[in-house]
Every structure is written in C-alpha cells, then in structure tokens.
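Continuing from the previous page of notes. For each protein in this section, the sequence appears first, followed by its structure tokens. Read the first protein now.
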Amino acid sequence: MGTPAKVAAVIALLAACAPAWAQNRGAGSYPDKPVRLVVPFPPGGPNDIIARVFAQKMQQILGQNVIIDNRGGAGGVIGTDNVVKSEPDGYSIAITSAGALAISTALQDKVPYDPLKDLAPVTLIARVPEVLVASTTLPAPDVEALVALAKARPGTVNYGSSGPGSMPHLSGALFAVSAGIDIVHVPYRGAAPAVNDLIGHQVQILFADQPVVLPHIQSGAIAALAVGGRERVVALPDLKTMNELGYPQMEAVNWYGMVAPARTPAAIIAKLNAAATAAMLAPDVKEKLVPQGAILAGGTPEEFAAFMASEIDKWTKVVQTAGIKVN
C-alpha cells in the first residue's frame, strides 16, 4: 500500500479532485455516466464479493454509479475478454482474477487476449488464501486420510473448481501432483456453484478463496482440511497450512486486480487507480473484507503490470514442471 506519506498524498489528491469531478461532469469530465464493472464469475463467489464492496465505495468517490456486470465462464476468461473488446474510455473495467490474468495464459493455447498487451492494469486489489475444504460425507477427516483414500481408490475422488485455468483448478492439480494421487477435476462457471455442489455432496473436495467458504465452514456445512497459503489465517487459527502438513511446494493464494481495455487514456487509469486506492483505505471496506481473509494490496499501474508479468512466468513454470493440463 505504500508509505504513510504516499497514502497521505493520495488522500489529499482525492480530496482536492473530488469536488471538481462532481461539478464538471456536465463538461464531459470522466466519469460523466455510470461505470460498468465486470465480474467474470457468477454472483456470490469471492471475486463478486470483493468487487461489490469496491463498487459501492468507488461510486461514492467518483460521484457516479458503478454497476456490477457478472459474466462468468472459462475461469474468468469470458468476462475479462468482454472488457478487452470494450471501448477504451474508462466506462468498462473489471476486477478479475489470477486465473484470467496469469494462469489461463500458462495453461491454454487459445486464450483470446494477451493480458500484458490487451489490458491496461489499474491496480492489484487483494490477495486471498485458498482453503482446502471437503464434503461432510467424505470419509476423510484430514489431509492425511484424504491422500490415503485417493491412493487406495485412484480416479474416484473428485475436486471442484471455479473453471478451467482458475486458481482453484490449478491448486487442485498441484495438490494431486504433490501428493502423488489421481483425482478428477470437475469445473464450474464460478466458485459459488462449486461450493453449492460441495455442500450438496456432488463434489468431494475443493480449493476455494476463504471469503466464499468461511460461512459454510463456520456453520458446519463443509469441512476445512488445510490452508493453501504459507501462513495460517486469522479466522481459522487452528487450521494447519499445506506446508505444515508436508507439502512445501503447495502455495495457493489467489489474487484480484482491476484492469481496463488497452489504450484507455493514462489520465483515466490514474483516476481509477486513485479511487481504488482510496477505497482500500476506507475503514468500512477493511471491516467488510479483512475479516474474511482478503489482504488488501494496492500499488501503481506499473507495479501491477510487473506483478502480472511475474505471475505469468511463475505459473507457466509450475504448469510445465507439473505437466498440468486443462481438462
């Protein structure tokens, strides 16, 4: 998020600019109409939860409605591609995932866009650790028992995901390689339907962002087996990490970033970056997202572009080394 001096400078800039943005809308200053914020997953999933909190706060900051447009499918690729093909005027933006911005490029030959060329990075919004959860009917109360079950019955344990090329997909595939087990991938059009089928015992295990599974863990509807990140999570302090359980190569942390179409004017990107940064600093945004496990990020468009490039390189190497394929 930067130094305190930088944060103070952003707040001061927003305070100075906000009245002008509101008063000059009639003169054509951006934004002078509602902004469409694409969420490339169905309602109810972690991407949707984070985006709705930011949309509400950013419309207060920008003085215009920020309207959520859910366009799920292909692990976030379909909705992200919709923004790629939109006018580069700042009125179609997205908060999208690591799957759509880095992993799909590593896994698939036919992704319809190049995230580094066809999108204008705005800022990294948040990082969210994955949690390995299971159906309450699965006869495996912990990871050790799950691995033993999968080894005894190859190809019979299945794992859901939010779509091909998504972080939950790659997390499950990496877990299979790390544990030396044969489990079957069942892709969905988003995390919410995958979790619903886990609750309904249609799938057996799932890596998912903490915000979307935490209420169901707490209610007892699903069982938590491990944290995919390197550190334990505050909301589930007794839940061990995959690293603690003997899988040091397992690091499953999702992330979400704001992007616009390539060729969006730099001044608009700067304004969106400032608004998103101000939203991250807002106490009510922190109160809604931090307890659910979101680690708010921030940074400049240039820093986010460099981060995306590093993530594409990282996941490409993981995919090649592990031999992971899209089903």
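Done with the first. The second protein uses the same format. Note its length before scrolling.
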Amino acid sequence: MIAGEHKGWMGMAPLFDPEEGTTILEPPGNGKGNWIGAPGVIYDDDEGKFYIYYRRRKPRGDGADRGYECGISESSDGVTFNEIWTASKDLFGSISVERGALVKTLDGKYRLYLGYVAPEDGKWKIDMVEADSPAKLDPKTRKLILAPENCGVEGVKDPYILIVGGKYYMLVSYAPSPVKMTDGLHDSADVFNTGKTSSNTGLALSSDGINFTWMGDVLSPPGSGWNAYAARVTCALYVAPIFNIFYDGGADVGENYEEKTGLAITFDLMKYHHVTEKAPLLVSPHASGSLRYMDVVRLNEDIYYYYEYARPDGSHELRMNKVKADV
C-alpha cells in the first residue's frame, strides 16, 4: 500500500527541512553573487557512484566573473564528493556557463548538456559533449543541440533531461520573444535579466538525444504572485501515478538570480499544473531566501535532494538532504 493511500493522498513527494541540509560544496567567495550550485545529478548503477555537475560563479566585474567554471564530482555515498573534472567558460568559448544536465545514455555513454552564452550573439544556447566517462568530457568536441532561433524564442538554457520509454525529454528554461521587440535585447548577454521577457519552461523531444524537436511551452509563470516572472523546471520525481515537478519561481526580474522552489505536477510530461499557487514550497531562511536549481536522485528507499541555497552573507552553497521514500 502507498503511504497515505487510506487518506486519498496519492503521488506526493516526501519533503525535507532545508536548514537540516548538509553542505556539499562551498561557494568561491563570500557575499552576494558568489555561488556554487545549479546541480545536475545522476546515480550510476554500473559504477555504484553518484556524479554531480555544478557551476561556480562570481559577481559581475569580479575578474573571471559570472559562471566562470563548471565541474563534476563523484561520490560513493551521495554526501562526500571528490572533484574529477573541471572546465572554464573559455573552453566553451562562452561569456558564462550555467546549469548542465549530466546523462548516461541508453548505450552507456556519458553526456553533458550545457547551457551557455554564445559570444557571437549574446544568446543562451545548449551544447552537448560526450565521452566514455564523466572525467573524459572534452569541451572541444561540443556540438550545438538547441538554439533559440530554431525554437522561435530569445534564449534556451538550464536543460533537465529524463529518458522515458527510450525517449529523451529535455525541459529547458526559455525566454519568449517580447510582443514588441526592442533593440539591445541581448546587449547584456542575459536576456532573462532584462525584464523584457520572462523565464518559462519548454519541452524538446528526441529519440537519440542529439536531434531534438521543439514542442513549445509546458509551464509558464502565472503573471501574478510569488512566481509571476519565472517558472523554470529543475527536476522531476516520479511517485506513481504522478511526476512531481520542482521549479524555480520569482515574482519579478529583481529575483532573477534569487529564485525559490515551487511545485507542479504532470501525468504525462506534456501538460503541467501549478500546485504551489500562493507561496513557494521551499526557501532558505537566510538573505534573499533563495533555494533553487534543485535536482533529485532516488536510490532504493532513499531520496537525495541537491540544491543551491542562500547563506546569511548572500552567497549560495550547494547543499543536500536525504529522506526516506514513502513507498
């Protein structure tokens, strides 16, 4: 029997207290704009290891600023990690790197799908690199997977990938084109921070994880309330018969870098429904309250949540909570 079934409760994800979380990785400095996070996590059954992707970020104007480096660490217990790979934004020819989706393919290859700012036009795009192990990923071999001009939007970033029934579902943050286009939309190399668009979630589908078809919007900000400006899907946890969809929300462009976590649900990964309509589901008690970019791994009876978490000084750390599954 599913826990809570006698009460008529179905498909609900067990949650956690963020204040009781364990710090996995420290930010590169103190104060606002110093972040480590945007995790993408997998558990490799063949290797018996957790692999976690993340990016490091410094404030604008602080030397190697913005998303200046990404890394991958491995762990046997999901708590203590050892870094095995790093790559600077320069290796991707980028102004800034952001969240990446680490995936083990159906044929045993490792892929990293990475959101980055393309220097030629200042637009967010998604590339992919592939290797036999996460430590061997080579940015020089990257190939373009999704570009905004092929989707009819202004930017695509922060991929999250599920392989369901052999099909690759890639959920991405995208910036819709404004009703009235204006010059200079990409001058800052971050259209999401202009206030002239919003942060929505779209879906792209593929049979091979390389050639994707853009399916369009699946989760939009409602236009008012705590998540009026942003609804960026970050991960999914399947608790039959429902996919619990965690997403980053923000009230306006001023919260673009300090989002909180909300919840939506879907039965088919095509049609989504907001659950947390009045307030976020999870926040940090510190500084901006930001708790964002959550990812989740379910391993046997345990669920591991990884997320970016605001500290008292305004920096963000990478944190983890482990809870028992209800089934």
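What the second structure shows: The radius of gyration is 18 Å. The chain has one domain: 5-324. We return to this in next week's lecture.
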